[in-house]
Amino acid sequence: MSDEKHVVPHSAGTGRPKLKAPANAADCHMHIYDSRFPQIPSRAPVASAAVADYRLLQKRNGTTRVVVVQPRNHSTHNQVTLDAIAQLGGNARGIAVLHPTITDAELKQLDAGGIRGIRFSLGDPATAVVSLDMVEPLAKRIAALGWHVQLHWPGDMIAENAALLARLPCQIVIDHMGRFPPETGIAHPAYKVILGLIDKGRTWVKIAGAYLNTRIGPPSYPDATRVAQAFVAAAPERLVWGSDWPHPSEKNKPDDTLLFDLLAEWAPGEATRNRILVANPEALYGFARAG
Predict the structure, then answer these.
(1) pLDDT tens digits for 44-75?
(2) 20 to 30 A from 106, CA-CA: which of 176, 223, 269, 291?
(3) CA-to-CA distance for 232 and 176, rounded, in angstroms?
């Protein structure tokens, strides 16, 4: 019923989205925080966000596949993400955070546990647990596994390191639409850098984190929406979507229903949305092909 309430931890609102998720829809960016596993001090500690909590979001928005991204609070202690993948089963994959000291045997163990990429979140050096000089050495290590590097970098860093990105030997995933300054949007030089990498068949973009790309905010996040629509127009075959639950950057949690419904504005065509939610995640993360 339309007035049925669906309470989800770390999420405002209780209603269901108007947009119906297609079968096998994937949420390609979320995090698990679990006190059973080691954590490090963080600029913004996040309360427990367990698999059981996340399943309530899946029930609310209709997604069934998921990519668990190792959160900064848990540093390189990837057991929290491996455990979440194991709980969520065959419909889950993961993104790890690593240092170059990782052994080949440990990489194979992570691969067997469902890890398909590694993340470099470098926007704030004070809280980063990896560094820029680690990107290329680790990219060379993971290329043989078919993994990718996932880059949560501000637009300036993307533009400044265009040459580095062009020579990486593996696939690249750009987090949160490239984090361009909202007042600049796709006029930022990083947008052209990303499109050039996409044209070479090596790069994907996560259209996620509307609240990270806006000065205006909800309900329509118009500045973020313009960026998302530009990517959809340019390269719908190279986009995936993510909720960013439990929204660790936000003190006032957003409405996940509103965020999911933004997809109808970002990608008005049903076939394009299905590509972003189903076919593209299958290609990028190795989910079983639907149908």
Answers:
(1) 667 899 999 999 999 999 999 999 999 989 99
(2) 176
(3) 14
Asked whether the beta carbons of 123 and 158 are under 8 A apart, the reply is no
Over residues 242-268, mean pLDDT: 96
Q: Could you identify the residue written with the tokens 């647990």?
A: 129
**Tokens 């691969």 correspond to what residue?**
111
Classify residue 250 by its DSSP letter.
Answer: -
In a 10 Å sphere around its CB, with 0-12 CB exposed, 13-18 middle and 19+ buried, how is residue 21 labelled?
Answer: buried
What pTM does this model have?
0.96
Measured over the CA atoms of residue 162, residue 249, residue 131 and residue 281, the dihedral's sign is negative
* CA distance to 77, 127, 285, per residue, from 40 (Å): 10, 10, 28
15 strand-pairing partners: none
- Pseudo-torsion of CA 22, 25, 30, 31, nearest 10°? 120
3-state secondary structure of 26: strand
- Which pLDDT does position 291 carry in this prediction? 62
Specify the 3-state DSSP secondary structure of 76. Answer: coil
Q: 241: which strand partners?
A: 207
Three-class DSSP labels, 128-144:
CCCCHHHHHHHHHHHHH
Question: What are the C-alpha distances in Å from 282 to residues 73, 200, 287?
Answer: 28, 20, 4
Asked if 257 and 15 touch (Cβ cutoff 8 Å), the reply is yes
Q: Could you report how far apart the first and last alpha carbons of the chain are, in Å? A: 29
Radius of gyration of the chain (CA): 18
3-state SS of 151-183?
EECCHHHHHHCHHHHHHCCCEEEEHHHHCCCCC
With 0-12 / 13-18 / 19 or more C-beta atoms within 10 angstroms meaning exposed / middle / buried, residue 285 is buried
Distance CA 203, CA 47 (A): 33
CB 276 within 8 A of CB 36: no
Model pLDDT, residue 256? 98
